[in-house]
Amino acid sequence: MLTLLRLVRIIFVGLRYRLDELLLSSIKHPLAHGLLRIVRFGRPPRTPRGVRLRLALESLGPIFVKFGQVLSTRRDLIPHDVATELARLQDKVPPFPSEQAAASIEAALGASPHVLFAHFETDPVASASIAQVHFAELHDGRKVAVKVLRPGMLAVIEKDLTLLRALAGLVERLVPDGRRLKPREVVAEFDKYLHDELDLIREASNCSQLRRNFGPGTGRENLLMVPEVIWEYCATTVFTMERMYGIPVSQMDRLHAAGVDIRLLARTGVEIFFMQVFTDGFFHADMHPGNIYVSDQPETLGRYIALDFGIVGSLSEFDKNYLAQNFLAFFRRDYRRVAQLHIESGWVPPQTREEELEGAVRAVCEPYFDRPLAEISLGQVLLRLFQTSRRFNVEIQPQLVLLQKTLLNVEGMGRDLDPDLDLWKTAKPYLEKWMRQRVGLSGLRQRVEQEAGQWVQMLPQLPRLVHANLMRPYIEPQMHDELQRMRRAQEHTNRLLTTLAAVLAAAVGVAIWALTRH
């Protein structure tokens, strides 16, 4: 009954924001066109379709807001105007009661927050679709931020996901372009993101890993600040971290007033992103302005601060090498190499004609290269490539879609800070240096150091293994005899088969002769 009522509510909201018109207009069928004329009669929609969809998702609650955010990252699947509008969805939703937050903390950690902490602010400082954040102070004086999961989220999510799967199936069957849009795969991707974000221990571990990657001794400690995880106050529904002090990266006036070098900040952001992707293979994948701050403290002025680690991306060594070579080939306008990389990766069918794929890549990239470098969007180039790749049945890897979405965020944030930011010029030296390290002597030394531990264990065993191999009986004569026996047996079998075939042929001949006699 509750599921049915929820479905009725969704239908009501859809009709209110004219999503029926949005759905019917995408179906290329005479019946759909007839229904479209009926629903448009007397009340044609005046609001753009993307705006109507965004408002509908906001009305349906936090889960649908989160779905809209995830959907906005799939610009390779949905129209550009809809994706741009959905990207405006913010993690600003009404907070749940503080009493419920306190009860959740007590259930997870075994004591009231007013006992666990020397001071706990009952009013949340931020509220998102999945959780909300309260400031607190530990008994040893450390300032912390306590993230609390919304109560009852799992049950709500499962119900809404069931409905979303059903809707995705309808879209796939009814909309002509439904199969290409892969609505069920998008819902499955959304399902994974949601369940990952519902486990705050997972988010805390992501935070801890990113902090270690930019911690003391890495040579990057002056680039990015990541809060320390307070593990004794963490559970699947509670995440306690060091409180960070800074200015949202989107608040330019405050950054200028604090004396932050904005141009340097823009270039540093690009460097941090490429470090995470190509050096670590582990990157913060939700880098919108709400999750990125800039320190305003005198001792750390101008350093980036990362928050919200629910969505991270990871890349294999193969992915990193493939991407780096692709980027460098783009920079050098070597479209044949781009086509070869796509074929070598196995992401296009092996029968794909290399010169045909090269021509398609050139048609995408060449118009951008004819513009001034400052006007070129690397993210948009990748987006166009993803769209063009459908023609060649390229299997877009989920981790690369997440990377492309993050790259668009980083590039947009960088251009907001410095309109003259040239992402290509900033990225190319880093990638060339990274490739030299991979294929040069330093890369060889690094890989030897990584394998040295295994070699240390194997080296003492080598004399014993060599001796055992040398003492092994000489088995070549036995093998020769065995092969001879097998050959003779095969020849004997062949003679038997020949004899049987001759007898059978003779019997058939006699039978035919007897029949013709009568």
Automatic annotation (TrEMBL):
<comment type="pathway">
    <text>Cofactor biosynthesis; ubiquinone biosynthesis [regulation].</text>
</comment>
<dbReference type="InterPro" id="IPR011009">
    <property type="entry name" value="Kinase-like_dom_sf"/>
</dbReference>
<dbReference type="GO" id="GO:0006744">
    <property type="term" value="P:ubiquinone biosynthetic process"/>
</dbReference>
<dbReference type="GO" id="GO:0005524">
    <property type="term" value="F:ATP binding"/>
</dbReference>
<keyword id="KW-0808">Transferase</keyword>
<feature type="domain" description="Protein kinase">
    <location>
        <begin position="119"/>
        <end position="456"/>
    </location>
</feature>
<dbReference type="InterPro" id="IPR045308">
    <property type="entry name" value="UbiB_bact"/>
</dbReference>
<dbReference type="InterPro" id="IPR004147">
    <property type="entry name" value="ABC1_dom"/>
</dbReference>
<protein>
    <submittedName>
        <fullName>Ubiquinone biosynthesis regulatory protein kinase UbiB</fullName>
    </submittedName>
</protein>
<keyword id="KW-0472">Membrane</keyword>
<keyword id="KW-0997">Cell inner membrane</keyword>
<feature type="transmembrane region" description="Helical">
    <location>
        <begin position="496"/>
        <end position="515"/>
    </location>
</feature>
<comment type="similarity">
    <text>Belongs to the protein kinase superfamily. ADCK protein kinase family.</text>
</comment>
<keyword id="KW-0067">ATP-binding</keyword>
<dbReference type="Pfam" id="PF03109">
    <property type="entry name" value="ABC1"/>
</dbReference>
<keyword id="KW-0418">Kinase</keyword>
<keyword id="KW-0547">Nucleotide-binding</keyword>
<keyword id="KW-0812">Transmembrane</keyword>
<keyword id="KW-0830">Ubiquinone</keyword>
<dbReference type="InterPro" id="IPR050154">
    <property type="entry name" value="UbiB_kinase"/>
</dbReference>
<keyword id="KW-1133">Transmembrane helix</keyword>
<dbReference type="InterPro" id="IPR010232">
    <property type="entry name" value="UbiB"/>
</dbReference>
<keyword id="KW-1003">Cell membrane</keyword>
<dbReference type="GO" id="GO:0004672">
    <property type="term" value="F:protein kinase activity"/>
</dbReference>
<keyword id="KW-0831">Ubiquinone biosynthesis</keyword>
<dbReference type="InterPro" id="IPR000719">
    <property type="entry name" value="Prot_kinase_dom"/>
</dbReference>
